Amino acid sequence: MNYIIRFRTESRKESRMKVCIVAEGCYPYVVGGVSSWIHSMIRSFPNLEFQILAIISNRSLSGKFAYELPENVTQVHEVYLEDFNWDGAGGKGRGIHLTKKEYQAVRSLILNREIDWSVIFELFQNRTFSLDKLLMGPDFYHMVSECYRKNYPHIVFSDFLWTMRSIYLPLFLVLKSRIPKADLYHCVATGYAGVLGSMAKYLYGCELLISEHGIYTREREEEIIKASWVAGVYKNIWIEQFKKMSLLAYDQADIVTSLYARARQLQLELGCPAEKTRVTPNGIDVERLADLPGKTEEDKKMIHIGAVLRVTPIKDVKTMIQAFAFAKKKVDRLKLWIMGPCDEDEQYAKECFDLVEALNVKDVVFTGRVDIRDYLGRMDFTILTSISEGQPLTILESYAAHKPVIATDVGNCRELIYGDKEGEKPAGILTHIMNLEEISEAMVELAENDKMRKGMGEAGYERVMAGYKVQDMKQVYRGIYQEFAKKRNEKWNEEPFHIKKPWE
Which residues contact 30 (CB under 8 A, 6 or more apart)? Predict the structure, then answer.
């Protein structure tokens, strides 16, 4: 099995809605961004029981939580995308024999035709077979051969066949997973999470809510286009695979949220029905970031730039380091603090460390995972050089601390920097992706203009107070959750969810 359940404790059955958060590659294993949002959501509703259905790469991550789970999280279920051994005995023999209906459903999936997902769900949930027998069997071979003849006859067939097996393996692993029962499945992405949520809705007749922070399909498309491990036509095949999964999620979801208007427009372009969509901005705990410790006497000698992020390629830390090296030649007082975990992509982190050494640039500090409250008040401004974002919490946190931000023009960063209403003052500087010159100049400009920094910092604070407080976000989702509870005739109990102890 590629699926385990980790029980925290036994819970008492109560007449209140049970929510299953479906997350891919984030909570509770990775800090920051979407993980922080999930953690905040769970803590915002202590009256509800939550389960976590977590999609992670492999068993090596099992149980390695970066968060202390709130008391109202009763179970964590894990699904592994790489939990498979091609050398297993399951591949021997003639393979699984699909019925005519099953064959047509899987064939439509591979040929990008209209897909009967109900047949696919029934196949993987109700029939017992090894994935070896399916992927190495004659039925899958014939489907792939048909796809090859119609669309890709100019490439090597053996390469194509094995690539298709590798593309469909993680999807099939997800489809074979056993899903815990809940009243509402709240997926924080489409993709594999959306597939699990859609399958749960089919199996259990539950409700399905999708909250996209970045638009999953577009993010995967950007990653694949840039990826060196995917070549030629295979990039298009991978992209189409993610589009199919997102379309399924949009079709099955009852409500689909996005963080800002442009993201909603992208959802519509990708096939999400307009009547399902809602814009629900992020929110942060402003009070948590009040009265932060300021600069020490030692700090006052330097201009401090904070970068709160995971050291991963999508954050483009290399460009940030290179831009900082150029800026420091003009303003020697600059100091860059890169605050966040370096263990998510250890190879990339090493490349960043090596780049600092190769450039012989001084005053670059990698802090690792820290409590930003110990550092943010000491910063003069913060920076984000990502190649893809949704509505970054780190920008909102900087604003709550009265700090201006340099950010690349991705996701909702433009609106956060400049505002979305006429007459709003800028709260930082916007640059283009991977533009060393622009990013470096922005660092220098803010470093040399104290009045500008303070003015932009106050503009950011006003912006976050006007529309990005956690209380506002909580109120919006309270309304959505209550809608689902009413629809299911579930009691909405404001009393905290209680775990019954054996002695009670």
Answer: 66, 310, 341, 344
CA distance 361 to 324: 8
Q: Is residue 347 part of a domain?
A: yes
Number of structural domains, the chain? Answer: 3
Q: How far apart are the first and last CA of the chain?
A: 35
Read off the amino acid at residue 392.
Answer: P
269/187 same-domain check = yes
Token duo for residue 314: 């999508």
How many angstroms separate the Cα of 293 from the Cα of each of 113, 247, 372? 58, 47, 11
Taking 3-state DSSP, the helix, strand and coil percentages for the chain, each rounded to the nearest 5, stand at 45, 15, 35
The pair of structure tokens assigned to 238 is 């991978």
SS3 358: helix
> 121-150 in b/e burial notation, b at 16+ Cβ within 10 A?
bbbbeeeebbbbbbbbbebbeebbeebbee
Torsion angle of alpha carbons 80, 82, 86, 87, nearest 10°? Answer: -80
Does 125 share its domain with 56?
no
On whether residue 242 sits in a domain, the answer given is yes
Burial of 301 by CB count in 10 Å (0-12 exposed, 13-18 middle, 19+ buried)? exposed
- Same domain assignment for residues 74 and 41: yes
> CA-based Rg of the chain, rounded to a whole angstrom?
24
Please tell me the total number of residues recorded for the chain in this structure: 504
How is 126-183 classified by DSSP, letter by letter?
HS---HHHHHTSHHHHHHHHHHHHHH-TTS-HHHHHHHHHHHHHHHHHHHTS-----S
Distance CA 374, CA 385 (A): 22
Count of alpha carbons within 13 angstroms of residue 208, beta-carbon side? 24
Are the CB atoms for 176 and 120 separated by under 8 Å? no
Which DSSP string corresponds to 5-32? Answer: EEE-S-----SB-EEEEEEES-TTTS-S
- Alpha-carbon gap, residue 149 to 241, rounded angstroms: 19
Ranges in the chain, pLDDT < 70: 1-15, 86-95, 499-504
